[in-house]
Amino acid sequence: MRHVPLLALIAVLAAAAPASAANHGDLLSVKKSKPVASLKGAAKNVTVRYLTKGVGGTLVPVSGTISIPKGSAPKGGWPVYTWAHSAYGIADRCAPSVRGNLELVTPMLLRVLKDGFAVVRTDYEGLGTPGVHPFFIGTSEGRSVLDIVRAARQMDKAVGRHVVIGGHSQGGHAALWAASLAPTWTPELKLGGTVAFAPASHVGEQMAFLRTFDSPAFSPLVALIIRGADAAAPSLGIESSLTDKARALWPDIDATCNRGLSENTSWGGLSGTEIFQPEVDPAPLLDLLNANDPESVTIRSRVLLLQGGADRSAFPAFTDALAKDLLGRGAKLTYSKYPSLDHGTVTTDAKSVGDALAFIRKHR
Q1: Is residue 249 helix, strand or coil?
Q2: pTM of the model
Q3: Integer distance in angstroms from the first to the last C-alpha of the chain?
């Protein structure tokens, strides 16, 4: 597919320039998005590659999509809603820019676009681009969420500096990390607020239990968590700490998406007690996960947490504790709970979505 000539020239010049000249958020390439990954009603939908700082400490390419509203931008440019997606899997083919708009939240994103926001959606580091996706590694997620805003502003000069961050599940985890990093990572941006739907939290605490859970119910999630940890800290030697059964399934994580991992022939057929060798000390892994939990970050800007009371993925008790932690660290937090909603319907229910949209519009 043909690249925009000017941006292709920029990419060529960037490649020819000294490495020190590159910066996180630099735009590498632009092409028209696949129809399945586009937001209807946008003036343009493009898939981009841009730079972010990876877990290895160097700049790496990341992919994502940018949707620009129709009409003329307001004074100061289009405000930006940067969306962090939930977990699809770690394999490159699981990236939203490749697979398309599979999230339940897509109707809400269409509303945000119609309200005059440029909607940008990162795939995250290593998801659709070289390398392994560092699942649940906060700095990696947060930088990807912020740097695509920089890339959007290079792609279209009508995109402004005012930003609202949003995310669901893994994306809620990413959104909170992005909010904590924004003042120093992208200081030129003006963060209005952050919306986190059922964010993953207390992952270290949950892993301590899940590794001894005599059921396969959460083993596909455990697979993503430990592969992400391995990408961030290879020195942990996670693969060598697995049982023979789990080690045989290790390649599946890089090859298939959530549905495949959940099959009985994959991680969905392995109980939590069958993953790690019994003599392995879990402390180094748990320490890494605890350090990447959102309850450990400081956010001094506005945050809206939305949590379903019937959620069996992001358990309400953990989000209750997260809310207390964030408040204790200075966040301007609003915590909204919806007793009858579960992990998915919290992103589709008229009340919860209405509350989120009101927050986004107010803090544009």
Answers
A1: helix
A2: 0.93
A3: 34
* Cα 317 from Cα 332, distance rounded (Å): 20
CB within 8 A of 74, min separation 6: which ones? 116, 160
What gap in Å lies between CA 304 and CA 306, rounded to an integer?
6
Asked if residue 122 lies in contact with residue 65, where contact means CB atoms within 8 angstroms, the answer is no
- Matching residue, tokens 């200081």: 187
Fold of 5-201+293-362: Rossmann fold (3.40.50)
Taking a C-beta distance cutoff of 8 angstroms, is the pair 199, 176 a contact? Answer: yes
CA-CA distance, 93 to 252, in Å (whole number)? 13
CA distance 34 to 89: 20
Residue 301 to residue 315: CA distance in whole angstroms: 24
Residue 200 is inside which H or E element, if any? none
Per-residue CA distances from 225 to 55, 203, 313 (Å): 15, 9, 14
pLDDT (tens digit, 0 to 9) for every residue of the chain, 364 residues total? Answer: 444 454 444 444 445 444 458 999 999 999 999 999 999 999 999 999 999 999 999 999 999 999 999 999 999 999 999 999 999 999 999 999 998 866 689 999 999 999 999 999 999 999 999 999 999 999 999 999 999 999 999 999 999 999 999 999 999 999 999 999 999 999 999 999 999 999 999 999 999 998 889 999 999 999 999 999 999 999 999 999 999 999 999 999 999 999 999 999 999 999 999 999 999 999 999 999 999 999 989 999 999 999 999 999 999 999 999 999 999 999 999 999 999 999 999 999 999 999 999 999 999 9
Burial code (b: 16+ CB inside 10 Å, e: under 16) for 215-236 equals ebebbbbbbbbbbbbbbbbeeb
3-class state of residue 300 by DSSP: coil
